[in-house]
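Session log. Operator J.P. requested a structure for one protein chain; no other inputs attached. Running the standard single-chain path with token output.
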Amino acid sequence: MPSLELFKRDLRSIQAQVRLVSNNQELIFTPPCLRPLAADIAPEIWNIATALHKVEAADEGRELDGYLVVLDSAHLPLHVSATANLFYLSGDIAAREATAQDKRWTLFGNLGLFFRFILSLLETQHGIYSFHASSIYNLRTNELTIFVGGPGSGKTVLLLEGLLHQGQQLFSTEMTHVRVTGEGCQFYKGALVDNIRVGTLVEDFPEILGQLSLNLAAIPDRWGKKYAVNFAAYQTASDELLNPAVTVIFPQIESRRSGIIINDHLPDHLFRRLLYDNLSEKLRESVHLYDGALLYEFPDVAEQREKRMRFVSAFMKLPQLRRRSVLSGVRDCGKALTA
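Structure written below.
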């Protein structure tokens, strides 16, 4: 049985600093979802590296932003609750973590509580907002291109196109974090690992197999299986970008389509809505933990919604901001980055 002694561990991601507290030391010090991936391609699509750039020891001397308390006991009900800077989780958590079939929706999974708590603290404590978007950087032109969209929209295809065919650098595979201040726009690097269907790599971008020395020939069900692919070799030198030119692309990439349709005239009302709906969507969707045994929804108070809208308005006023929607097939999508 876990000890009644409480253990603590302080972690940081981006600017958010969190103290983990638990009566089960292993839960917070050796969770599988926080372990570094050991290879360029791995089956652990639930790893936190597919959601956040770094999770590391907190900076000593800096104030903590939040606390995540986990009481592990079979005698406690399975329960989760939260305030602005405190998360509380109780129940037979170690057993749930070990037996969960979908480990993405666990304490430290890439869709789990810790990840979403970090996003919440970035917003509420630091004014850093997180688009569900991948992004690439053109060093020559000092331009950051952000691919905004949900699962299956084509973000990964455009990301691979930019990295492999156009010599651009990776800034994020999953979440793009940004803060607008009086000095301009500050971007913070996101995840460097992406969960990609094997078919996308083998059939659409086979050149990456040689570049990353990936052996995927023996993997069955190419279009039904995803692997975590590490793109750290393509990343920008800096973890932060200040005031780059910005292009926001809303993609719809369809594998069987030929040709491309580009729209550079999205009206303000549509652009505003698309940005707002995408912004921090991970905080506004239901969290189905432990294969649905525990449901949690972040409180989305009016004040925070108003702050998000003010951020969107400020973001739209950036002096070097372009907006674009793209409907394309895989073969023609590169024109979206050069036109």
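Operator note: Residues 302-316 form the longest helix (15 residues).
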